[in-house]
Every structure is written in C-alpha cells, then in structure tokens.
Sequence to fold (252 residues):
Amino acid sequence: MVSILDDVLRVFVGFDPREAVAYHVFTQSVLEHASQPVSFTPLTTKALGNFQRDGTNAFTFSRYLVPYLSDFSGWAIFCDGDMVVTRDIAELWEERSHFSFNKAVALVKHDYRTKHPKKYIGSNMESANFDYPRKNWSSVMLWNCGHAANRVLTHEYIRDKPGDFLHRFGWLKDEQIGDLWGGWNYLVGEQPPSSSSLYHYTLGVPGFKHYVDDHASWHWHTTLVKALKCGNEIPSAMVERAEERVGTDMKP
Fold:
C-alpha cells in the first residue's frame, strides 16, 4: 500500500538565528506554490551542534549532514534560508528522475567571481565575501541520500574536514555531481537581472536595509507580508505591538 508519505518532499533549510525571518520567508514561498506535501527540517545549532567556524553562517557545514539525517536513504532537497521560490518546488523534486543513481548530488554549477568584497553590509552580520572554487554550488542541492559515496558524511567526518574540501565536494568524483538548470539558484546581485524560479539573496536578504531595493526584492517583501498574515491585522502594527509587549530587550 502506497502511503501519502511517499509523496512528501523532504526539504532541509539552513537556519541562522541572526536572520530567522529569512527561514520563514523561504518556507512561506515554498508553501504558496507547492503542489505536494512538504516536510521542512531547519538545520539549527541547538539540534545538531555548532559546526560554525571562520565567521560562517550557522548552517554552513551542517548542510552536509542531510544524507545522514535522511538515514542515507531516498532523496532530499537542501536550500539556504536566504531564498524565495516562485514556482512549484515539486518541479525541482522531479529533477531527480533525470539522474541515474550514479549521481550523488545535483546542483547549479556557478562559475563566477563575486563583485562584492563584503556581504550583509550595514548589519551586525557584515563580513568578508570571499571567492573560492565552486562558490555557491552547495546553496541548493538535490541530494541522492542513498548514494554510497555520501555515507562518509557523518558528524565526525564533517567536523574534521576543512571548509574548502566540503564546499568543493572533495569526497565525490566530478562525474558524481549532476547539473541543475541555473534558474534553480539565481544569485541576486551577482548575475544580470533575470526572471527565475528561485532567487538567492546571497549578499543579504532585502530585510537588511542595504539590500531593500535590490533586484527581485519585491518577491521577498511580498512573501514577508504574506508570512505575517493574521486575519485583517496590519503586519507593521502587529510587530509594533509585539515589541511593546516583550520590551526593549528583544529589539536590536
């Protein structure tokens, strides 16, 4: 007997508490368009331990735990939290049917050098934006969790390996990395303005003042307002009341 769970899309999402709103905007955008049930798993440091190092996002290295967290079985999607989708994520899920089982992961193979030496400008997250080979390849991944090569990805292995090894998929052969259409990981501010299925605000989400008017920011702002729906309440008034209730300790 086929269970409805067989049709559930497993989506793992990077979560950084310093920009928690990004996670909720992303999941809202997925739910708006999803034609199949979706299971979200936020990669949090409280649940998985702290893999953060070198000033990175909280989920920079925990993303490589997705096969382990899936019991090395089936397929799963990973996405950074600083994204918005504008199409049915089931279309991305269906891409797995285009790959033979010898592919351990599929992704958009960006080939670029950043135009921006810093990211998260003007925020308490501001940091250097380094170039490195295969930059942003791991920000959207369609994982073949059952692939034998991915079985090395345990907590211990990921803690022991340097960042450049993991980001370059050093445990895989090049032929084990499949190609996704570039529209599933369009880099806002790094690529020419374009329509896309997934906008990746890699330099900073439009919630940061510096990026409020960036290309495709409209998608992010619109989804944020939808995520704050509560009857006919005005989102800004609702947030203001919440801040008054919790006091100044919760404000930046």
Remarks:
- Residues 1-5 have pLDDT under 50 and may be disordered.
- The chain is about 25% helix and 15% strand.
- The chain has one domain: 4-250.
